[in-house]
Each structure stands twice: as structure tokens, then as C-alpha cells.
Design goal:
By secondary structure, the protein is α/β, with parallel strands linked by helices. 44% of the residues lie in helices and 17% in strands. Strand 10, helix 14 and strand 11 form a beta-alpha-beta unit.
Length: 424
């Protein structure tokens, strides 16, 4: 076998067929497809059986529900290909990807390949700029800091023997477990890594509603799992003798991810979890050099350098959204925003979520009382019907803080943000 493709599958009936079709359509022959059914309760098993019946190169493995890490580790045990790649059950490869990866690895006598990444689905098609840069490199140094900012597993293909001989496994964590596998593998094995620009891994982005069910809500456990993953990376780099400058990059990565992937959507978290995020961010800042601190501040220009819990945000919002009547879709998009320092002022409604930053006013005399109640530095009046782009508040904030656009009327800044996102 040339390449083994390991696919963990849990309740994947919606997208699994598309993923398997993309592998059937690969231009590379002699590939092994290992599907690990992680105790699915939907029609995943039926789909696997249907494809396995038609394709002799598909190996179906069943395990009681144990999580994605256990499923991948299980798949490694069955891998027979010279190289191994991991593919989630809702992602795909472009048709020529595996052939181009295999040929590049063979030609370069390399141990690991890194290809391009495109996200698709919700939010449209977007190219991952870090993976784009890495894929252009003929040779990638193991200490290249860009690898820290490209934890996604699907765009990497490794020698199977290297994985097995390393005895490094995916840790039993639910967040960032891919980085806690790939980076220690690199630190320990010091592989020859090449870029493959002619291969494309396509990562599916889900709608906010789908994401809630897929990634679940932000919990204390999830934040702790992320922090454990990053500690594994840090400890492995320190053990391998990486310099302080590199270790500072790991701290920066950890802090940036806490801000961008957790704090920015804090309204989906319990107060206890938000307090944990605030605490850990403070601890990480205390470990930063002046250069690292300055670098990290660039990731939060919109939310500011200080981060707060929900109560503090409700007292000091940056954006006030006034919408008398709100649809469920609108509310969902508001609380999926990537800039959390806002308040929502609306008419009383029993269907509104229980959130500290919602002000419910009487419908009678609503316009005047809403104007008086608004505390934000920018106040936007919205119809409350159509869902907002989840980046809307972030763009609004950056425009309001901009010396060039900040003095524009609030309604014009809101219009400009919508136009920018539409054109983008």
C-alpha cells in the first residue's frame, strides 16, 4: 500500500459519503482506507458497510465510543501503507492530492509532507495563509514556527513506520489533540519535512447552529483539554532543547487561541468557564517577554488588551445593538459573534436567552428608552430579522477605533462593515 487514510467516524451520516467519494476519485491507486466507527448511533455503520462492499481497499473497524483520539490510535494499528494521512469524516481532498503527496515524498526521500488548506461550507471558500506558505517550501525546518500555527491534521502526511516507531499517540483530549500529536512527533523524530503545493486538503466549516452540536458548548473541560494539549507541546519542545524564543511562540499560540477560539465566543460558556479563560490568559501574559506581549496584542485590537468576565462586559459594552423585535436566527448570529463586548437592547420576549448583556424594555416608548439605556461607544439600530455575519461586530469595532473612520456616524460605520464583509 502507498498511503493509508485513517478516518474516525462518529454519527457522520451527513457527510461521510462525500468524504469517501473524494477518496474513490483520487488519481493515486493502491491506497488503504481505514474507517474507525467510534460507536455511532446513526446510519454511519450502514454507509461504511455500503462502501466497504463495493471497495476492497476499505477496512471497517468498530470500537465502542471512545473519542476521536482513540479512533485515530486504533486506525494507526491497522495502517499498512508506506505513508499515513488522517482525514476527518466531513473533510475532503482534491482528486490529485494523494498522488502529488506520495510522489513528492518519494522524490524527496522525506518523512512528512505539508499541503495547502482550503476551508469551505459556512462563510464561503477561504485559503489558509500559513498552510499556503508552508506548502510552497521545498524543505521545512522542524523548528519553523509556522508549524505551530497550523495544527490541522489533514494537510499532513507522515511515514507510517515513523509514527509507529515513535510510540507517540493522540492524547485522550477533545481539543487541539492534533497539535499534541504532530508537534511532539516532529520534536522527537526530527523528520525531513517538505511542502506540496499541488495538494489541497479541504476543511469543512459548519454553520453556527451546526457548530454548537459538533463542538458542543464551551465548557471548563474543553478549555482544560486545550490547555493540556498546549502543555504537551510546550513540554515536548522544552525536552527536545528548543530555545526560549521558540517556547515563547508556544505561549503566544496558547494565548492567541484562548482569545480567538474561546474568549471571543464567551456567551456560549458558563461563568465559571469564562473566569478560567480570564485567569489563564493573565497567567500566560505573566510568562511573556515584552516582544511576545506586543505580538499577542495584535490579535485583540478590537476587544482591547484587557479581558473581562460577562458581568464586567455587560457593564461596559463597546457596541450597543438596538433591535426591537428579534428573530431566532438573528439572536443566534448575535451570540455567535467573534467580538463579545456588546449588549443587546430589545423588547421583552419570553424566547430570549438568559444573558447578562440583554436589556429587555417595554414595547411602549421603546425607541426613546433604548436610546437612553445604551451604554456602548457605538450604537447600531438593526431590524433584528436577518442573521448577521459572525465577523460583523469585529469589523464594526475596528472601524470605530480607526482614526480614519472612527468619527463617521454610527449608522455609516455599520453600513460600511456590512459592505466590507459582502465584498470580501
Amino acid at each position: 500500500m502507498k498511503i493509508s487514510v485513517i478516518i474516525p467516524a462518529y454519527n457522520s451520516e451527513m457527510f461521510l459519503a462525500e468524504t469517501l467519494d473524494c477518496l474513490e476519485n483520487q488519481t493515486l491507486d493502491d491506497i488503504q482506507i481505514i474507517i474507525v466507527n467510534d460507536g455511532s448511533t446513526d446510519k454511519t455503520a450502514d454507509i461504511i458497510a455500503e462502501y466497504a462492499k463495493k471497495n476492497s481497499n476499505i477496512l471497517s473497524v468498530y470500537q465502542e465510543n471512545s473519542g476521536v483520539s482513540a479512533a485515530r490510535n486504533n486506525g494507526i494499528n491497522h495502517a499498512e501503507g508506506k505513508y499515513t494521512v488522517f482525514l476527518d469524516s466531513d473533510d475532503i481532498f482534491s482528486p490529485e492530492s494523494l498522488e502529488n503527496i506520495y510522489n513528492a515524498l518519494e522524490k524527496g526521500n522525506a518523512d512528512m509532507a505539508v499541503c495547502r488548506i482550503t476551508s469551505f461550507g459556512y462563510g464561503g471558500t477561504q485559503i489558509n495563509p500559513v498552510a499556503e506558505e508552508l506548502a510552497k517550501e521545498e524543505l521545512i525546518d522542524c523548528s519553523d514556527k509556522r508549524l505551530l500555527w497550523n495544527f490541522l491534521l489533514g494537510n499532513k502526511c507522515c511515514k507510517t513506520a515513523m509514527i509507529k516507531n515513535s510510540e507517540i499517540l493522540f492524547p485522550p483530549l477533545r481539543y487541539s489533540e492534533d497539535g499534541a500529536f504532530t508537534m511532539p512527533l516532529i520534536y522527537k523524530e526530527n523528520p525531513k519535512i517538505i511542502g506540496v503545493y499541488g495538494a489541497m486538503f479541504k476543511y469543512r466549516r459548519h454553520t453556527p447552529k451546526e457548530s454548537f452540536s459538533v463542538s458542543q458548548s464551551i465548557s471548563t473541560e474543553l478549555v482544560n483539554h486545550f490547555l493540556q494539549s498546549m502543555q504537551i507541546v510546550y513540554d515536548a519542545a522544552e525536552k527536545a532543547g528548543y530555545a526560549e524564543d521558540y517556547l515563547q511562540e508556544i505561549i503566544c499560540k496558547t494565548y492567541s487561541a484562548l482569545i480567538n477560539e474561546f474568549y471571543r465566543i464567551l456567551w456560549r460558556a458558563e461563568n465559571e468557564t469564562v473566569r478560567l479563560i480570564v485567569q489563564k490568559c493573565s497567567e500566560l501574559k505573566s510568562r511573556m517577554s515584552a516582544e511576545t506581549r506586543k505580538k499577542c496584542e495584535t490579535v485583540q485590537k478590537d476587544i482591547g488588551n484587557e479581558i473581562y468576565d460577562k458581568i464586567e462586559i455587560s457593564r461596559n459594552p463597546f457596541i450597543s445593538i438596538i433591535a426591537k423585535n428579534c428573530s431566532a436566527e438573528f439572536i443566534n448570529s448575535v451570540y455567535s459573534q467573534s467580538m463579545p463586548v456588546f449588549e443587546l437592547i430589545t423588547a421583552k420576549n419570553d424566547k430570549l436567552p438568559d444573558a447578562e448583556n440583554i436589556k429587555q424594555l417595554s414595547s411602549e416608548g421603546f425607541a426613546a428608552s433604548a436610546k437612553e439605556a445604551a451604554k456602548g461607544k457605538i450604537v447600531l439600530h438593526l431590524d433584528g430579522k436577518k442573521p448577521l455575519d459572525t465577523r460583523f461586530f469585529k469589523v464594526v469595532t475596528l472601524l470605530k477605533k480607526s482614526p480614519k473612520f472612527g468619527l463617521f456616524p454610527d449608522f455609516l460605520i455599520g453600513f460600511g462593515a456590512k459592505l466590507f464583509l459582502k465584498l470580501k
